[in-house]
Amino acid sequence: MTKDEIIRKKQEYLFNCVTTYFKDPLVIDHAKGQYVWDLDGKRFLDFLGGIVTISVGHSNEKVAAKIKEQIDRVQHTSTLFPTEALVALAEKVAQIAPGKLKKSYFSNSGTEANEVAITTARMYTGNYEVLALRHGYSGHSQLTKALTGLYTWRKAGVIPYGIVHAPGPYCYRCPYGLTYPSCELHCAKDIEEVIKTSTSGQVAGLIAETIQGLGGFIVPPPGYFKIVANIVRNYGGLFIADEVQAAWGRTGKKWWGIEHWEVEPDIITSAKGMANGVPIGLTLTRPEIADAYKGLTISTFGGNPVTCAAAKATIDLIEEERLMDNAEDAGNHFHQGLEALKEKHSLIGDVRGMGLMQGIELVKNRQTKEPATEATNLIMERARANGLLVGKGGLYGNVIRMSPPLNINKADVDQALAVLDKSLGEATATNS
Ligand code: PMP
What we know:
Blueprint: H1 3-13, E1 28-32, E2 35-38, E3 43-46, H2 49-52, H3 61-73, H4 84-96, E4 103-107, H5 110-125, E5 129-133, H6 142-147, E6 163-166, H7 186-198, E7 203-209, H8 224-234, E8 238-242, E9 267-270, E10 281-285, H9 287-290, H10 305-320, H11 323-344, E11 348-354, E12 357-362, H12 373-385, E13 388-389, E14 391-393, E15 399-402, H13 410-431
Parallel strand pairs: 3-13, 5-6, 5-7, 7-8, 8-9
Antiparallel strand pairs: 1-2, 2-3, 4-10, 9-10, 11-12, 12-15, 14-15
This protein binds 4'-deoxy-4'-aminopyridoxal-5'-phosphate (PMP).
4'-deoxy-4'-aminopyridoxal-5'-phosphate is lined by residues 51, 109-111, 114, 137-140, 209, 213-214, 242, 244-245, 271.
């Protein structure tokens, strides 16, 4: 098919709500390592990685070999019949899980992982009300839309599910107008006030992303999670860390983003980078919490042997090649380069991120912090024209999000920085 045919058929046969980037959608033909190619044969350096999902490079040969091996053995069984691939993955996850977290529930997406987490927390605690954070994203089902704290992703009749949103740890635009560290983490302490004023005082839990992804790579300040986890536990709830984006070494040095903050969550959810692009969801918790989930459940595709083989191969590769260390080194190099771009381009208001999860928030004016939404779109278009793919996020659509594969090298980072520099310059020239 030609590019035009594909775009026309997409409009004709798919739901329009399934949004795409760019005025002229990019039709990807094939991909390898850190690159993707469009139908015309143009190559792009992929610094989005299928939305924080390509952990070990596109079409990784070692992962592909394990997938093929498993397909030849058995492709599908359903959760009614355990397989070696299923338990091998669960055992591996338990080995790298923080602290006492041990038991896994596998599903097909981050949305499902969060659904399972909330249901489990409600069953374990006997409480119903759940806290979520403003600017958070939890998924596209009814429950997870209700947990989401971004109006753009909450459309279509979100019904109340006993969910209360607390202001988030968005230091660049502090909801309380304070500054870290003199704020003394007021946003974390205020969760207690939210519980006391907006719930019955008995909660099932609080769900928070370790780094808010769609919210614009918002990194909470040090000490935040410790305070939040303590408060929620004092009111009978569990602390659920959504690591759909931040797990699997992406934040550098550690397997899990939350490990940087010396807090052991009660439940971790993940998906995305876990199987390098093969659909998977994970809800991971302590045995006593997992076993409080009563009643029968089934997930036809959850724990599918091919998916499990892909996930195990991805995790093994991250471990063998010490890609968390590379995420730390290449990520620091990237962060420094972005800070240097901030010196040069007044459009950049904030640079933030950990490891290979880095974002820049774009503003029209550094004093007023007015979001530069159109310029963000323009920079993405220019970056595409210059051969680089980046993502977007933030309540105002003014944060460029970057999350390349964990095995990129510093030369790739330098290349991305050069293209960003050029594209920022072009966008500024167009706007002035
Ligand atoms: N949680 C977070 C933090 C996410 O970023 C996403 C996906 N963007 C989800 C949950 C939902 O995952 P999925 O799209 O796999 O359902």
